[in-house]
Amino acid sequence: MAGPTTRTTRSRYGTGGDDSLAVYTVAERCRKCYSCVRTCPTKAIRVHGGQADIIASECISCGYCVPTCSQAAKRIRSALAGVVSLLDSGQPCCTMVAPSFPAAFPGLEPQSLVGALASCGFDHVYEVAFGADLVSCEYSRRYRSMEANGGGFLISSPCPVVVSYVEKICPELASHLAGVVSPMEAMAKVIRERLTAPNAPQPGIVFIGPCVAKKDEARRLGIVDEVLTYDEVHELFEARGVDPAVAPAREFDPPRANLGRVYPLAGGLLRAADVDTDLLESPVSIEEGSVRVTDLLLELASDVRHGRPVPTKFFDLLFCEGCVGGPAVSNDLTFYERKRNVVSFIKRRGVVHDQERWVEQHAQYLNLDLTRTFTPAERSEHPVAEHEIQAILARTGKHDPEDELNCRACGYDSCREKAIAVSRGIAEVDMCLPYLISRLEQAIDELKESQSRLVQTEKLASMGQMAAGIAHELNNPLGIVLMYSHLLKTQITDGHDGHSGEDVERIVREAERARTIVQGILNFARENRLELRATDVNALVREAARGVASLDPANRAGVEVHLDERLEEQRVDASQLRQVLDNLLKNAVEAMPDGGTIAVETSLGDGAYEIRVTDTGPGIPEKMLPHLFTPFHTTKGVGKGTGLGLAVCYGIVKMHGGSIRATNRPTGGACFEITLPETGSSAGESFV
To answer: What are phi and psi of 581, to 5 degrees?
Structure first.
């Protein structure tokens, strides 16, 4: 035996969950990682509301989801309380240990393990390997009979996960399962029918092994009372205060096992049954591991459905990589070390290679009924329509085959397989990681844009308050200047003083301009109120475009209007939206003193519509673009603009819940895009 190693301990056992399953989910610990979906060979996981629950009709109790769940959300139903109750009941109680135990208790001599179990209160400790010997004899007999009669093929049935997979996933193969009990059931029959006196009370029987599925098998068959995994045995030792290292050593109770001890290893059944496994000569196949076994079973099921011949006559299958590599064997040994420990134990105990002599020695056990039947499930899964698959794929942005990344982050092998699962109600659209990342990136972009808008709004608000104060203070003295300058202009005109009249005219003109600036400041600072009414936006755009003629008396700017006729009436403040359009068109005309073309367009998008105003002028200086909607920033010359028009436009659009942005066209000229939410034409409302 190898020296002591550290046993990996995890919170993998509990008493909650569905008693009909060996594995259950602790919902509050599930963290949407989908590792259980990735690991499950039958995809027996239903994700609902982000929680991954087990589908009982699909679960084969392989237990692979348990060690792969880092949050201990998947747990094995513990039998510890039931075993302790059985031991304390006063009823005779025995245990039988699976032949893989040397891989689970490294550094512990078999006699010490047996002694520790006896110290826990078990009256007898047996080897399940003896049941495996009986099963091997039955397989040997059936294989010889099949060879003699020819036709058909058989699948071994000692592994309960293989049996469950066939019954639930490939029911057409159920008739090809060898109708032989498992070594656990065979040994339980030996205990109940041969080792217990006819009038004596039936003992409680506890199976100890590496297999999670044995818990389900024991419950279905009813011949074994409880099943402990090797990890639960360590917990039993702690609960009973037993230290295996110092427990009195003792041997397993008879009958003694023989080649049945090789069952945990690949091909062990055939070796014990003395079946030739030569790769070139023998029509048998040995497979282990979930991927290889499931691939094989699915292929065999397809062959049976389509009537194709199967040249192999016997399939010896273990769902795990040998029983020494199951998910409930948790220690730090490598697979090779576990296998070596089992082989070392077999060699030290000795083997009777003369099968006839062994049969003669154990004749009293060979007349036990070791046959069993299987119950294939009825599968009525209907194919999902292609248009439904495509619709689900489109919901995560997968419109073309190249969009299907097949990254497996959701737990499914392909985007298409996941879409089928969504259609069947066992998966959710939001399980797609690339889709969630794209949504997150979009949300971050929107957040940045909202933050930018908020900064702009706060800036405008503070500037508006300051501007309002200044405007109010300037308004009164400016009104007096205007009034007296007009009076002075009248007096000078009456006196026919031409030179003085020009000076007064300049005063009046600049005072009027100052009043216009002050009025613009007040308009910018004033808290406007939206009067939302059903409005034909296209008609509003046409009217604004016709107004360009008054802005361009020389008729140097041509206007093109392109309207999306799908755009229905929208609830907007028509006068204020018209003010925005007039301002943009006026800027476009002024940007093209030598003439050009102005284009006004509307277009309908997904839940929003756009109004675009473009020109063929010189465009906007790049350094001005970030500040274009900030008050008092203007691209016009000194004395030709207040720098408030676009700031007012920005405020009006924002009050409508939309956005406005300015860019330079690649072909030259400026482009202003207004995006507004589609609001329909319901009754009017007022908003501040």
So the answer is: -65, -45
Give the full edge-to-edge strand order of the sheet including 23-25: 13-14, 74-77, 23-25
298-354: pLDDT as tens digits: 999 999 999 999 999 999 999 998 888 878 787 788 889 999 999 999 888 877 777
Lowest mean pLDDT among 174-188, 220-234, 503-517: 503-517
Burial class (CB in 10 A: 0-12, 13-18, 19+), 340: middle
Structure tokens given for 65:
């989801």
The predicted model gives 503-527 an average pLDDT of 69
Q: Which of 319, 355, 406, 269 is nearest to 60 (CA)?
A: 319
Q: What is the pLDDT of residues 142-175, one digit of tens each?
A: 888 887 777 789 999 999 999 999 999 999 999 9
In this structure, what token pair is assigned to residue 33? Answer: 């990682």
Question: CATH topology for 13-365?
Answer: Rossmann fold (3.40.50)
The model's pLDDT over 423-458, given as tens digits with 9 standing for 90+, comes to 999 999 999 999 888 888 888 888 887 777 677 666
Give residues with Cβ within 8 angstroms of 211, minimum separation 6. Answer: 63, 98, 160, 161, 229, 323, 326, 328
Tens of pLDDT, residue by residue over 42-77, are: 999 999 988 999 999 999 999 999 999 988 999 999
Q: In this structure, what is the dihedral angle of CA atoms 51, 52, 57, 62, given to the nearest 10 degrees?
A: -160
Confidence of residue 463 (pLDDT cuts 50, 70, 90): low
- Structure tokens belonging to residue 302: 């397809």
The CATH code of domain 444-526 reads 1.10.287
DSSP 3-state of 679: coil
SS3 sequence of 463-497: HHHHHHHHHHHHHHHHHHHHHHHHHHHHHHHHHCC
Q: Where are the domains of the chain?
A: 13-365, 386-431, 444-526, 528-688
Place of tokens 């009414």: 533
User: SS3 for 13?
Assistant: strand
Q: Identify which of 509, 518, 519 has the alpha carbon closest to the alpha carbon of residue 485.
A: 509
Distance of alpha carbon 570 from alpha carbon 681, whole angstroms:
5
Domains 444-526 and 528-688 share a fold: no
Residue 253, exposed/middle/buried by CB under 10 A (0-12, 13-18, 19+)? buried
Contact indicator for 270, 286 with CB cutoff of 8 Å: yes
Q: What is the pTM of this model?
A: 0.70
Token digits of residue 29: 């610990």
Fold of 528-688: Heat Shock Protein 90 (3.30.565)
